[in-house]
């Protein structure tokens, strides 16, 4: 008796055999298609964004309105845009640029600073000294070139006034010496210094030794009292020389004996006056 298979079974067997014949073997190599390169997107220049409020109600720090510069946004973060402005069109600072000399800047001291200068002095200091020591404590300010020109003019005017006052003071003492001229024995050999311009009385012993002596400060105070019209103030005015009748310089020590002394006072501006000081017992 012959056995016959259904047609559907026969079709399934034929398909299975054909698929098995077409399946790749283990020795066949797999090939892949080469992919094309896709370039990344270029950074985009954007204007500042409007402030985005966070949950707390405050603008985002990145998009805060105070960040007025443009930003470049890319895949790695947010960066400031490079400024295209130059110093050529920059607005000049008021007062001009400070005066500089050999990596130092010129400043005017607003108060006395130890080891640096006195109040009102115009000096050169390093930028570090000015920034870290003087500027922070408001002890000095920068001086511009324009201001220096004005200060130089004022300085010249002051020096001229000081010189005129020094000449006037010298004339006062010269006239006083001529009025007090008491004889040829009071004049030096060259005849330049004659007469007494200043007289002082002090307590003294029987031999003419002074009690306490006379120092340069006392002499300057006596000159100021005797000649109030003269110019005796200022650090440029100082007692330069004190000599006794024998010509010995006694300036380093106080005057200890009565007698006459030849004094020289520097009045500043290259003007000196030499006169005779007479010290007598009270």
Topology (elements, then pairings):
Layout: H1 7-22, E1 44-46, E2 71-74, E3 77-80, E4 100-101, E5 104-109, E6 122-126, H2 127-135, E7 140-142, H3 145-179, E8 198-202, E9 209-214, H4 216-226, E10 238-243, E11 255-257, E12 259-266, E13 272-281
Your description of this structure?
This protein is α+β, with helices and mostly antiparallel strands and 282 residues long. It contains four helices and 13 strands. Strands 4, 5, 6 and 7 form a four-stranded antiparallel β-sheet that branches. The chain has a four-stranded mixed β-sheet with strand order 8-13-12-10. Strands 1-2-3 form a three-stranded antiparallel β-sheet, with no helix packed on it. The model is unreliable at 46-51, 68-82 and 84-90 (pLDDT under 50).
Features:
282 residues, alpha+beta, four-stranded antiparallel sheet
In short:
With 282 residues, this protein is of the alpha+beta class. The chain has helices at 7-22, 127-135, 145-179, 216-226; strands at 44-46, 71-74, 77-80, 100-101, 104-109, 122-126, 140-142, 198-202, 209-214, 238-243, 255-257, 259-266, 272-281.
N-to-C SSE string, H for helix and E for strand: HEEEEEEHEHEEHEEEE
Question: Major β-sheet, in short?
Answer: 4 strands, antiparallel
Number of β-strand runs: 13
Envelope shape: rod-shaped
Give the amount of beta strand, in percent: 15-25%
Number of discrete helical segments: 4
Helix fraction, binned, reads 25-40%
CA-atom Rg in angstroms = 49 Å
Structural class designation: alpha+beta
Gap from first CA to last CA: 178 Å
Mean pLDDT: 75
In the predicted model, the low-confidence regions spanning at least 5 consecutive residues are: 46-51, 68-82, 84-90
């Amino acid at each position: 008796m012959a056995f016959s298979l259904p047609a559907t079974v026969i079709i399934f067997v034929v398909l299975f055999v054909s698929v098995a014949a077409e399946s790749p073997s283990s020795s066949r190599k797999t090939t892949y298609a080469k992919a094309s390169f896709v370039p990344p997107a270029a950074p985009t220049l954007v204007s500042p964004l409007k402030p985005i409020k966070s949950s707390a109600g405050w603008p985002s720090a990145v998009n805060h309105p105070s960040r007025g510069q443009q930003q470049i946004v890319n895949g790695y973060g947010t960066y400031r845009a490079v400024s295209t402005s130059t110093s050529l069109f920059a607005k000049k600072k008021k007062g001009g640029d400070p005066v500089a000399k050999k990596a130092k800047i010129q400043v005017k001291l607003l108060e006395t600073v130890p080891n640096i200068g006195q109040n009102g002095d115009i000096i050169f200091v390093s930028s570090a000294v000015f920034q870290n020591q003087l500027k922070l404590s408001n002890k000095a300010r920068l001086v511009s070139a324009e201001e220096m020109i004005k200060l130089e003019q004022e300085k010249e005017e002051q020096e001229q006034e000081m010189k005129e006052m020094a000449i006037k003071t010298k004339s006062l003492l010269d006239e006083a010496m001529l009025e007090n001229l008491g004889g040829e024995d009071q004049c030096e050999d060259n005849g330049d210094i004659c007469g007494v311009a200043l007289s002082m009385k002090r307590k003294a012993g029987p031999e003419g030794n002074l009690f306490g002596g006379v120092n340069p400060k006392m002499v300057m105070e006596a000159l100021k009292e005797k000649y109030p019209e003269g110019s005796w103030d200022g650090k440029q005015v100082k007692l330069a020389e004190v000599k006794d009748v024998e010509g010995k310089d006694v300036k380093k020590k106080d005057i200890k004996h009565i007698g006459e002394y030849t004094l020289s006072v520097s009045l500043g501006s290259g003007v000196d006056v030499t006169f005779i000081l007479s010290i007598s017992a009270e």
